Each structure stands twice: as C-alpha cells, then as structure tokens.
Amino acid sequence: MTGPLKGIRVIDITTNISGPSLTMILADLGAEVIKIERPNTGDDSRMMGPLWEGEGVYYLHINRNKRSIVIDLRTSEGKDLIYDLIKDADVFVENFRYGKASKLGIGYEDLKEVNKGLIYCSLSAYGQEGEKRHKPGYDAIVQADTGIMGINGSEDGEVARAGVSILDQGSAMWGALGIVSALYHRVQSGKGQKVETSLYETGVFWTGYHMLSYMATGIEPKKMGTNHASFAPYGAFATADDSIMIGISNNSLFAKLCKVLSKEEWIEDDRFRTNLNRVENRTVLNDCIESVFKTKSASVWIHELEEGGVPSSIIQKVSSVIKSAQTESTKMLTPVNHPKIKGLNLPRLPFQLSDSPLEIQKSPPLLGEDTISILREKDIDDETISELIEKGVIQVSDQLEYKK
What we know:
Layout: E1 9-12, H1 18-28, E2 32-37, E3 51-52, E4 55-56, H2 57-62, E5 66-71, H3 76-87, E6 91-94, H4 100-103, H5 108-114, E7 119-124, H6 139-145, H7 166-189, E8 193-198, H8 199-206, H9 208-217, E9 234-238, E10 243-247, H10 251-260, H11 275-280, H12 282-293, H13 298-307, E11 312-314, H14 318-323, H15 325-329, E12 333-336, E13 344-347, H16 371-377, H17 382-391, E14 394-395
Parallel strand pairs: 1-2, 1-6, 2-5, 6-7, 7-8
Antiparallel strand pairs: 3-4, 5-14, 9-10, 10-11, 12-13
C-alpha cells in the first residue's frame, strides 16, 4: 500500500457500516487493514442487498483496500490468533455493543497488556457512559434520538430520516481522525491509548447550531423541508419539468435573483426588502417565485441563474450524478478490478493529497480471501493451518483453492 499511513497495521473486527467505513478511511490512507470476520457469514453487510454477483453493495462500498481473514473468536485457538495479530499491530478497531469486546477477551484492558503501544478504537451507538450505552446502533434510530429526524422532513409535519447513513459514516470520520491523532501522540510520547466515538455523539454534534438557536431563543426548531430557517428564498421550486434548488442568503443574491426573474420591483417591496422580511413572508415570496419558475424548463432556468450568479442546481437523481461531467472531472468514481464483478467503480475518499496520493489498490476481499497468506506471515506452518481449517477455527474463501 501507498499513502501517508503506509506501515501502519490495523486489526479490524468491525461489521455493518460504521466500523468498516472507519477502517476503509485508514486503508485508503495507506494502512494495512486486516479484516477479521466470523465463519460462514462474515461481515453482515456482505448480504445487505441489492446483491451484485453475490456481493452486497453496502459491503462493496466500504471494504476496499483490506485483507480478509476468517477466525472463530468463540474458540481458544481463535483468541490466540487474535492476540498473535495484535502483538505487532498499531491499531485495533471494534464496534460491538458496550461490554461485548471485554466479554470476548479483546477489550482495551486485555489488548493493551499484549501491546502497550496499541491504539484501541471503540465505535459504539451511544458511547461508553450513560443509561443508553448498552443499546444497539442503528443509524435511523440514533437520528431520531439526537433530534435530526425532529428537524428533518416537510413543513406539514411529515417526518423523514436523512437518506444516507450520516451517523454511521460521520462517526467513522471522527473515529479515523481520533486514531490519526492518537498515532501522532504516540510518535511524541511512545504511548498507546483508547479512542472512543459514537453515533449519538456525532448526531448531537451535527445538530449543534440548532441547539444553540434553541438556547438563544427558547423556540423549538421546526421542520423546514428544503427551506432554511434563517434565509429566504432558500429551497426547492418546481419548474415546467424538473425541480430546482436555489439558495439566497443575502440582499445581493436576492437582487441577482430578481434580475434573472425580471422582477426587480421585488427588491424594493417592503415584504422582501431584507432577509428578515423575506423570512417573515416566506410563503408569499415562494409562491411568487414558483409561479415564474413554472414558465420555463429547469435546464433553461439553471443556465440563466448561473449566468446571473445565483446559487442553484437541478435536483439530480443518483443515476444523473454517476453520469455527471463534474463527477467525471473530479475522478470521484474509481475503476476497481474485482474477481467476480466486471466494471466495478467505487467512490474515492472526497479529499486529495498532493504529495502522498490516495489509491484504491485492492478490491473488497472475498470472505477469507487472505486467511492463508496472513497466517503464513505470522510463521504459522501449513500443517497447523490445515488443522485449524478442519476444526473450523479459520476459513478460506470458497472461491480460492488452498494449496500447501
């Protein structure tokens, strides 16, 4: 692997979305990530549909650049293999329910005795303290529990969750940042430490300015649909065909919008003169604007709005984003060679480094694809490997033929 974390070894025992997203970030940054999976089923996300040539799309999205080894943690031999892997690892990541890692003998206190310099990351649903710490983690449930769903949805009261796993992948970002910070601290101090983050803490942080708004005013934030509580006009509008989104946050932009719409008289209209006026009269203003937008197609309006310097976009479908010239120009979709899937393209991490470029060098591994090679690197002989396979302690990918 190449990248700024080249030489860092990560033992990844996570499953589903949050933990694998975190270790994907580390893997793309160049760390060697050894993904430990349970026998037969592996990571739960492997079967999260739709399936593409038998592989779950959730799994494919967040497990590239990793190596897969199958170990049964319920066996003493399996635990011994984990401890052996930990001895020369830099990072360990788990996203079990609170207390489960310790019950399995792989909690922080257990593993730091094996490796004093280990960075141990625990990514949970609700954190390590409080009465909810034992609850399982589901993105939508924690969206509800942190107020995100309380402010998300239509103005008529319809409730909606964010359509992407913002808390799973958001907590993954914080976990990765915490690990990188801990690695830097270890360079300075020589000491390992525990990193903790959770979906709940991420959700509370994401709602921060809404919380401050309530603290300042005592007014509960409302569902705004596509509108914005602080600005107007700001939201989605119907045209003669597709819907478009505009964002007006100051008087200068409002004047530009009025010019594009040939409604310069609105600039001096007392109902719309300032942003506060426009927010107060949002419904009337939105109706006036939409009546004009409905006279032309979305593509025509977007051309005119962009020419006029008004922030705007057609509300795109996912299929359109895949084909977008902007997506192609930014090289956000990277072709990846996969043993079962032809034409696999995966979204890269959304940042770039000029001197240590990030790459997707390895496709998401088949279950147990690297079991043999990883154990051989630990100087475990083939006879022992064969015995472990027969006992069911380890497993080899059914797509591969094990050869001594």
